[in-house]
Amino acid sequence: MQSAIGLIETKGLLALIEATDAMAKAASVEIVKRIDIGGAYVTTIVSGDVGSVRAAVEAGAAAASQAGELVSSHIIPRPSEGLTSAFLK
Fold first, then answer.
1. Global pTM?
2. Which own/partner pairs from 38-41 qualify as long-range (CB within 8 Å, at least 24 positions apart)?
3. Given Cys at both, which of 6, 60, 69, 85 links 53, Cβ 3.0 to 4.6 Å?
4. CA-CA distances (angstroms) from residue 61 to 27, 46, 66?
């Protein structure tokens, strides 16, 4: 299991694509999942070590803000197994 997960939520797919690209380029993280929430809200989840996830989320949040509307960004270090099995599988 990875030691952290990071989430970026945007309103609109274009901002999310820019954010996801920036996250993948900024640090060594794995793109885990994209979640369509509805009403144009979408989220990307990445995983990796805490430092890499932090760097990726910061870069992704900046890219999303420039390309469209960043709703939220968050990092969860050491997520519990219940969390990952409930939302990421």
1. 0.91
2. 40/11, 40/12, 40/13, 41/9, 41/10, 41/11, 41/71
3. 6
4. 14, 13, 9
Give the strand pairing for 41-48 and 69-77: unpaired
Mean pLDDT per 10-residue interval, the chain, length 89 residues: 87 96 96 94 96 97 96 95 81
- 18, 31, 54 from 75: Cα distances, Å: 18, 14, 7
Return d(Cα 15, Cα 83) in angstroms, integer. 26
Query: What is the distance between the alpha carbons of residues 76 and 3, in angstroms, rounded to a whole number?
Result: 9
**CA pseudo-torsion sign 13, 15, 17, 23:** negative
Tokens, residue 10: 């945007």
